[in-house]
Specification:
4 copies of one chain form a homotetramer.
Chain A: H1 9-17, E1 23-24, E2 31-36, H2 40-57, E3 62-66, E4 69-74, H3 84-99
Antiparallel strand pairs in A: 1-2, 2-4, 3-4
Helix pairs in contact in A: 2-3
C-alpha cells in the first residue's frame, strides 16, 4: 500500500524541513528526535500514548528512555526507509509531547 | 502518621471547598470527580500518570473508565475516611488531567 | 460488518457457556468478569495490555479498578449488545490475565 | 544510606555471578540485559511494571525498546556505579519478564 511506500531522499528532506525538531539520518532512511519532560512520570505517559498509537497502526518506534528523556527513532523496516507511517507516528508523538510539556 | 489522620467532616468540607470539581460524599468519607478527555489515549495516559504516583505513595484510587471518561474516587481505607493522602493524590490527578486536556 | 453483528440472547448464552468465569447480563447485552491480581502493579500491567488491544481494535472496555482488582464489562454500544468484538477483547483479557497471574 | 553504597568490582562480580542473564560492564559500574517478548504488547506491559517499581523506588532504568525487545541497563548515578538499588530493580524486572513470557 502507498502508506508503506519508501520516500526518496529528496522527499524525505522536503518533509522533514517542516519538522525542525526532527533530524533526518544521513542516509535519509530514518528520522529521530529527543524529548525532555519534567520528570519520569510525564515521559512515561508520553510513551504510553505513543505505544497506543503504535500498536493501533502496527508500526512501532525504536526508543530509548532514561528518566525524563525519550529518544525516538522512526523507520519502516518493511520498506527499508522512511514512509508516511513514520510521519504519522511522528505527528502523534509531537501532539502527545506538546500536551505533556515535552520539549 | 499524620498523613493518614482522618479528616473530620468539617475539615473535609473546608478542604474540598477549594476544589469545586470534586464532590465530597454525604458521609464526608470519600471524594470523587469525573474527567472527560479527548479520547481513550489521553484518558489512559492520565491513568498511567496517576498509577505511577499512586504506586509511589502506596495509595491507590478507585476508578472507573469507559473510553474517554475516568471517574476517580478517593478514600483512605486504613483511616476509614479522607486523609491528606487523598488530597495529595487528587492534586496529582488534577495536574495530570490539566496537562492532558481533561475537564 | 459481521464483527459488529449483535448476538442473539441464544447465541450469547451458547458462547458464554464456554467461558465460565464470565457472567452474561440478564438481558444478554453485556458480559462481565472480575480479576484479582497479586498487587496493583500486575493489575495495571494487565490493564495496559488490554488497553493496547482495545485501542488497536477501536473497541474499549468499561472497567473498574481498585488496587489488585479489575472488573471488566464488555458490550458493543454501536450494536446495542454483544458482538464478536467483545468476545475477541475478552480473549485478550483472559490471555493477559493468565500471564500476569490474574484469577 | 547503605542502599546507595557503591559495590566494589569484586562485589559486583560476585553478585552478578548469580544472575547469568545479566552482563556486568567491563568497568563493573553498570549491568545490562536484553529481553525478548512475544510481541510489543507484552514488552510494553513489562515496561509498565518496571516503570511502576522504578517510580516507587525513585530509581529508574536506562532502556531501549523496539517492538518485542527491551534492553535494560542499570546503574546508580548518584553513587557512580552499581548499588543494591540496581539489584533490587533487576529483581523486579526478572519477575515481571518471567510472568510476561520474556526471555
Amino acid at each position: 500500500m502507498s502508506q508503506a511506500h519508501k520516500l526518496s531522499a529528496e522527499q524525505a528532506h522536503e518533509r522533514l524541513a517542516a519538522m525542525p525538531a526532527w533530524t533526518l539520518a544521513d542516509d535519509a532512511l530514518s528520522m529521530a528526535r529527543s524529548y525532555q519532560f519534567a520528570d519520569f512520570s510525564a515521559a512515561f505517559a508520553f510513551m504510553t500514548q505513543v505505544a497506543l498509537a503504535a500498536e493501533k497502526a502496527n508500526h512501532h518506534p525504536e526508543w530509548f528512555n532514561v528518566y525524563n528523556r525519550v529518544d525516538v527513532r522512526l523507520t519502516t523496516h518493511d520498506a527499508g526507509g522512511l514512509t508516511e507511517r513514520d510521519l504519522a507516528l511522528a505527528a502523534v508523538a509531537e501532539a502527545a509531547a506538546r500536551a505533556l510539556g515535552g520539549a
